[in-house]
Amino acid sequence: MAGVSQYFYDIAEEVPDDKWKDLAHQLGLKRAKVSAIDAENRYLKEKTMKTLDTWRLKNGRSATEAWLRMALHDADVGWIADHVIDGVPDEVEPPWKSGVQEEGRQQTSTCCTSSHDVSYSNTTLALTEAKGALLGIEGDMNQLQIHDRHRTPLEQPTSSQSTCGGDNRSPQGGVTTGLLSSSGQFFHKGPTVYPMMTSPRGHALIVNNSIFDGNLSDRKGADVDVKTVFSLLKSLGFTVKQLLNKSAQEMLKELEHFSKLDDHKNVSCCIVFLMSHGQEGCIIGKDGKTVMLKEIFSLFDNIHCQKLQGKPKLFFIQSCRGAKVDRGTVSPRDAPDAAGGLNEQSLPSQLFGTLQGGEDVPDAARCVDQPTRTDMFFGYATQEGNMAFRNETQGSWYIQAIDKVFRQHAADTHVADMMTMVNKMVAEQTAHCENSNYTGGKEASEFLSNLQKNLYFFPGL
């Protein structure tokens, strides 16, 4: 059976002399790397082969058949994809099926690890997975998802004892690996796009409470969310700090400290994940006391956090916002992130305070150049008054959806569009719970944004 090298060789044979650099750029190779490949290799076929191998080793699980196919088309040599990729006979195992060893899978060959920490073997996999292959990695490319061991399924039953309504996916929670990189040609800048080219991109803080004092239930599965978010943020180029199991006062103190970091002036963006039990307009510390969300958000406004003025500040809140269960459809095991009690307050009110009636009048004596709060994005796991659901082995629906969508689309999609995809993915889930009060529960995530430009992360650039 031909290996990946032979497969790449077949592609290299077809690439015209004036197109290999276009292909390299579409595969995300930087200009300096392309120049080095050009200088180090004499023949066209060698240059193209080196380009494909470099792309594969650099991107690991993200080096997908779909990406290669798109790159070929974007380089105006799409006929190569049709001829070489689609020309692999169905009865022959495609060469890109050699993949990272799966835990518990018996191996019949020796596996070696490259200097890029990607393990490859010539293990034979089922032909039924062939069209979903990742180049050199196991996976389901038709759905742009990673193999079961690595992806974060949203419909998994909450408890390992529950089997109703679920599929046969691995019950392990875990971190999805791999994130598509932006191509050099996709990168664009201008007055409608936030500049996001600092290294690191920005600083991020993960606040997560999973163990509580008193009568509040512990949030099983929340540790999976922390690992998932940490990995995603690192992949997007952020430094990440974790704040785990803190009282309300400790949370507020650490958030204030984070907002005052001097290094915010040297980076492009700031992200905060808040994950705990919650009620409308507030999040709950491990001591059962609450912190108002608008108090947290005010720490990062243009008055209190001038180092982030004009820069995007993103907040993602995984918590309940009330005690009501949204019953959209009947399809009953997931646990709510609620602490009881319902404080009726509108989303604009909790973000910006209660709006008072009155007449707008000019104030010529006081000249300001911007509102107090700008360039902020607020993402919520659920709508006001409703519960949010968390799977006890796979993590929260909302966090799983963010991880999956961002890994697949951050390369060329701005945040608002990605979060619209997240909304759709979360809304498709239905709770499977032992507690009949939650059975059939639904969840609809939402976001409020006063970003003034499109926000792209440009991962890999």
Automatic annotation (TrEMBL):
Region listing for Disordered, in residue ranges: 152-181
Domain of life: Eukaryota
One GO biological process term: proteolysis
Ranges of residues in domain Caspase family p10: 366-459
A GO molecular-function descriptor: cysteine-type endopeptidase activity
Keywords: Apoptosis, Hydrolase, Protease, Thiol protease, Zymogen
Domain Caspase family p20, residue spans: 200-324
UniProt xrefs under Pfam families: Death, Peptidase_C14
InterPro entries according to UniProt: Caspase-like_dom_sf, Caspase_his_AS, DEATH-like_dom_sf, Death_dom, Pept_C14, Pept_C14_caspase, Pept_C14_p10, Pept_C14_p20
Biased composition annotated in UniProt, kind: Polar residues: 155-171
Death domain sequence ranges: 5-88
Family, as annotated: Belongs to the peptidase C14A family.
Protein name: Caspase-2-like isoform X2
Originating species: Branchiostoma belcheri (Amphioxus)
